[in-house]
Structure to design on (261 residues):
């Protein structure tokens, strides 16, 4: 199963665009990519979930871990997501109150 | 419910994470093919089954059991039931620790433990039945009935 992980730079933010299904099999790749970005000094990261077809609790856990890691560097991890089925997972778990979730990458890199 | 299941499909997978996507594909195809569940309810079932399979596979991994995980789909007039059977050590779902409130900074220390709460929210009924060995998690969705949200 392929998990697309493409990084671009926008307005001082590292934008990690995720494509495919994030589950217990693929989530370690997402974790590795986030750790790699932090170790490169990227402390303002936007994770774009618009290309994600499926996200489970393992994926949520990786994002929570990424946010914790970035906050320890005075950074932040924000999300881009408009898909109802993905947002619902954040809503059920209450994580909409933990993450800043934007409707577009433009909004995410413009908002601080 | 009193109706006996009219159709049963059984899928056995190796207890490895790469096979969970196959379970999702089969279960969502079966649910969508019956045309009695709204698309978002199919998504709910797919996620709940995936979470239960993740737990089953991790339970096998924890004690290095080589057996397969069995996923059984049963269909009756007014509901679907998907059960996931593992041969792990089992667990007490009522003994799971609570997470701190989301407003508590300590919340970020908890990356795991969201699967069971998700399952409970996504399906109409969930039962954790101890087996010998292992656990059977039964997920039920009633046709046409909306979830809690």
């Amino acid at each position: 199963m392929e998990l697309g992980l493409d990084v671009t730079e926008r307005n001082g933010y590292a934008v990690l665009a995720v494509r495919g299904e994030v589950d217990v099999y693929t989530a370690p790749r997402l974790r590795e990519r986030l750790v790699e970005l932090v170790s490169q000094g990227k402390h303002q990261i936007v994770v774009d979930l618009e290309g994600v077809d499926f996200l489970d609790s393992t994926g949520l856990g990786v994002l929570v871990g990424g946010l914790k890691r970035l906050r320890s560097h005075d950074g932040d991890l924000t999300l881009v997501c408009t898909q109802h089925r993905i947002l619902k997972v954040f809503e059920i778990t209450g994580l909409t109150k933990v993450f800043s979730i934007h409707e577009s990458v433009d909004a995410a890199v413009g908002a601080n | 419910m009193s109706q006996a299941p009219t159709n049963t499909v059984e899928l056995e997978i190796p207890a490895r994470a790469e096979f969970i996507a196959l379970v999702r594909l089969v279960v969502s195809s079966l649910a969508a093919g019956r045309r009695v569940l709204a698309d978002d309810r199919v998504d709910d079932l797919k996620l709940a089954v995936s979470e239960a399979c993740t737990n089953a596979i991790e339970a096998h991994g924890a004690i290095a059991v080589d057996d397969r995980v069995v996923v059984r789909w049963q269909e009756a007039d007014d509901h679907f039931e998907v059960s996931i059977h593992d041969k792990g050590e089992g667990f007490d779902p009522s003994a799971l620790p609570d997470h701190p409130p989301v407003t508590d900074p300590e919340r970020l220390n908890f990356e795991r433990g969201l699967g069971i709460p998700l399952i409970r929210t996504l399906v109409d009924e969930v039962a954790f039945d101890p087996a010998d060995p292992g656990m059977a998690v039964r997920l039920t969705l009633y046709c046409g009935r909306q979830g809690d949200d």
Observations:
- Chain B is about 30% helix and 25% strand.
- The interface with chain A takes residues 17-18, 20-21, 24, 40, 43, 46-47, 50-51, 54, 57-58, 101-103, 107-112, 114-115, 117-118, 121-122, 149 of chain B (CB under 8 Å).
- Strands of chain B lie at 7-13, 69-75, 79-86, 125-130, 135-142.
